[in-house]
What we know:
Layout: E1 18-24, H1 34-41, H2 49-61, H3 68-83, E2 90-96, H4 103-113, E3 117-122, H5 132-145, E4 151-154, H6 162-177, E5 187-194, H7 198-202, H8 207-221, E6 229-234, H9 248-257, E7 262-267, H10 275-278, H11 280-291, E8 295-297, H12 306-319
Parallel strand pairs: 1-2, 1-3, 3-4, 5-6, 5-7, 7-8
This protein binds the ligand C=CC1=C(C)c2cc3[nH]c(cc4nc(cc5[nH]c(cc1n2)c(C)c5CCC(=O)O)C(CCC(=O)O)=C4C)c(C)c3C=C and fe (ii) ion (2 copies).
One fe (ii) ion (FE2) is lined by residues 194, 235, 276.
Amino acid sequence: MTSTESKDTRAPAAPGTVGVLFMAYGGPESLDDMPGYLADIRAGRVTPQAVLDEITNNYRLIGGKSPLPEFTRAQVDATMRQLESLGRPLRAYIGMRHWSPWIEDTVRDMLDDGIEQAVAIVLAPQYSSMSVAKYQKKIKAGLEMYHGHIDFTFVDAYHTEPGYITALADRVRAGIQSFPEGEREDVHVILSAHSLPVRIVREGDPYADQLHETARLVAAQAGLSDEQWSWSYQSAGRSPEPWLGPQLDEHLRDQAAKGVRKVVSVPVGFVSDHVEILFDIDIAAQEVAQALGMTLVRPPALNTDPLFIGTLASVIARHLPEA
Ligand SMILES: C=CC1=C(C)c2cc3[nH]c(cc4nc(cc5[nH]c(cc1n2)c(C)c5CCC(=O)O)C(CCC(=O)O)=C4C)c(C)c3C=C
Ligand SMILES: [Fe+2]
Ligand SMILES: [Fe+2]
């Protein structure tokens, strides 16, 4: 069954069918969704009007909605097609953390379908108490809310999976090759990911370490020397406490001060196009780079790259209960 099949037309699952629950951040499907979407992300705290206006405008500039739900559905369908070769009865489900289809509602659908065993994976390769752990808590909340039991196996992280690393290294190489041959030696690669409050990492969160591990593997596989690449965070939230840095805009300024004029930007923590790439890099960071006299190239996001889809399929296959 594909991820797009409607709940109304879905038959009960055959006995022994294993549910595969793909979870993603969620995104507004129109500008009207913005206040509700932000209220959920901000856990009900009122979003100041200026912040709401700014973020709404960012979405307007990338087409008035988040492309994340569509890319998520495409990733899920492609992964399930690969998993068909296992010859096992599997059924795909999608649950979003901050927008519909909400994880809790999807868990209810799984219970209604008679699913008893399931694998849950987040479309984010690095584990954090602020991301993956929160998705997993929502599954537990759904089971409590609907008074059911499903034996879930959780995928916590897959940040060193070879297919994922190769797909990113391919992007680094493609970005460098987009410059004329004689200029490629001067290209600097910036690998980045969503920032997190410093406090969370000080409390022992593995997110930053896992990101650095991913980045080192990607740089090594792309054959970059230590001078040819650097690390940056991006998309820090608008809260007063310190977030992990350097932020992409200040990092670009530092690199420009060192004489860098050609940049390849590869966000490694995001697996599909959404506002943190399409606005934060393609518009905001691009503007900073241009003002600094830099050329910034951002290769395509992973989306349905076969290497990445193969990674998802293999990670899920390894977490399936014994047949
Ligand atoms: C590991 C941590 C986080 C990841 C990964 C992440 C991905 C991610 N975020 C957005 C969009 C928004 N995030 C916002 C706030 C926000 N994000 C995180 C953490 C991660 N996000 C935190 C801790 C916060 C702060 C929440 C709070 O209590 O205020 C926001 C709100 C506006 C803002 O503060 O900038 C948006 C929008 C996407 C699309 C995404 C990856 C798919
Ligand atoms: Fe976020
Ligand atoms: Fe964010």
